[in-house]
Amino acid sequence: MVEGFDISRQRQDIKEEAYWRACWSTLPVDTLLRRRH
Questions:
Q1: pLDDT in tens, the chain (37 residues)
Q2: Rounded CA gap, 9 and 18, in Å?
Q3: 5: closest CA among 20, 18, 13, 19?
Q4: What is the pLDDT of residue 36?
Q5: Please, what is the end-to-end C-alpha distance for the chain in angstroms?
Q6: Distance between CA 19 and CA 15 in Å, rounded?
Q7: Phi, psi of 28, deg, nearest 5
Q8: Count of the separate structural domains present in the chain
Q9: What is the C-alpha to C-alpha distance for residues 28 and 20, in angstroms, rounded to an integer?
């Protein structure tokens, strides 16, 4: 049970990471960095 949960959790993390990377690739990162500093 626990091992299966860990595997599903890892898959979820991978999906979230890919989702955020796709979002960041489309966002104007330069403007965000300038706004922060």
A1: 567 778 788 888 888 888 888 877 777 777 777 776 5
A2: 14
A3: 13
A4: 66
A5: 46
A6: 6
A7: -75, 90
A8: 1
A9: 14
Q: Specify the amino acid at residue 21.
A: R
> Which residue in this structure is represented by tokens 């690739």?
25
| Percent helix, percent strand, percent coil in the chain, to nearest 5 | 90, 0, 10
Minimal CA–CA distance to 24: which of 32, 35, 12, 15? 32
Domain with 27, as residue range(s), is: 3-34
What does the alpha-carbon distance between residue 21 and residue 15 come to, in Å, rounded to a whole number?
A: 10
Q: Report pTM.
A: 0.42
